[in-house]
Design a protein that fits this description.
YwmB-like_sf; about 250 residues; 2 domains; Dihydrodipicolinate Reductase, domain 2; elongated; TATA-box binding; 5 helices; Double Stranded RNA Binding Domain; alpha+beta; DUF1779; two-stranded antiparallel sheet; 14 strands
Amino acid sequence: MRRKRIAVWVWLFLSVFLIASAKNPSQEEGLLRVFDRTGAKMDRHMLHAGSRASESVASEDLPGLAEQLAGELGLGAVHSKSMTDGMRYEADGKWNRNLQVEMVVINDRPEEALVQPYISIRAVGRGPLSQAHLDEARSRLFRTLQKFRIDTSTHFSIQGKLPVGHRVNRDDREKLVRQVVRELGAEEVESMRTERIISVSAHTPLFNGGLNTKGGTMNVQVAAKVGDDDRQIILTLGTPIITIEY
């Protein structure tokens, strides 16, 4: 009898856990769902992490750090470049057929013995993004950031085209942006509106964190632009901001 009671409690706990998990998708998943509901066809997507190293590193040790990081990410050889912003160490490679990964380590104070380099890792893909590939990329990036004690905060951006069947006007773009903001349960914080593009920064309680702006805290950005074919809208979403060209 006792075993049956324990089994029932375990079953109830797992049921509640699974239901909670299903109701609380990741921020990336939430953004993808809203994007899909607009009817837009995805062209590009990017998962990006960028921050300064949490600890100081000797300038002479940066090439070695870049090599270790590239190795952990499964990238190719590291190439160094002397640029106006300092010394850059770059490497790239692929995680799958459709996901190009780029790493950059920047020493913007090469004259100093100890520095906190800026580290950027971007995973960029074209075409549709499957949930499995998103989960795999996110997990792999997170593990690497943790291992090297790099800030695990990431930016996620998606972009695609939505045919409208007629020449795109301002109302079409406004309607699309309002739809996305509404479905995210977000409130507009700041915006930019021109003849060809509407970009809205907003805050949604569905997503964590955010960036402070003059208008308030934002954690999602929505942009709608007239495409090269003026019968389609280029829709770009990003959290907490868009980090892909739009």
